[in-house]
Amino acid sequence: MLKMAVLMAACLLVIPTVHAQTTEQDADLQYATNMLKPGTVAPDFTCPL
């Protein structure tokens, strides 16, 4: 009975984690979409202080 309770608790902890890893879009791909392409001249900017 105790073994079954431990197994059920482990499943409740593991299943949502595995599901989140398989359904979430890769964060690195999403981050790189807004970056400048290689060879692009960076815009001039000033930092007002």
What does it look like?
The chain has 49 residues and is an all-alpha fold. It is built from two helices and no strands. The protein has helices at residues 2-23, 27-32. 0% of the residues are buried. The model has no long low-confidence stretch (mean pLDDT 76).
| DSSP E strands, number | 0
Output the number of helix runs.
2
Biggest pleated-sheet summary: none
What does the radius of gyration come to? 23 Å
Q: If you average the pLDDT, what whole number results? A: 76
**Helix/strand order:** HH
N- to C-terminal separation?
Answer: 66 Å
Which quaternary structure do these chains form?
A: single chain
Shape: rod-shaped
What percentage of residues falls in helices of 4 or more residues? 55-70%
Structural class: mainly alpha
Beta-strand proportion? under 5%
Poorly predicted regions? none
Core attributes:
mainly alpha, 2 helices, 49 residues
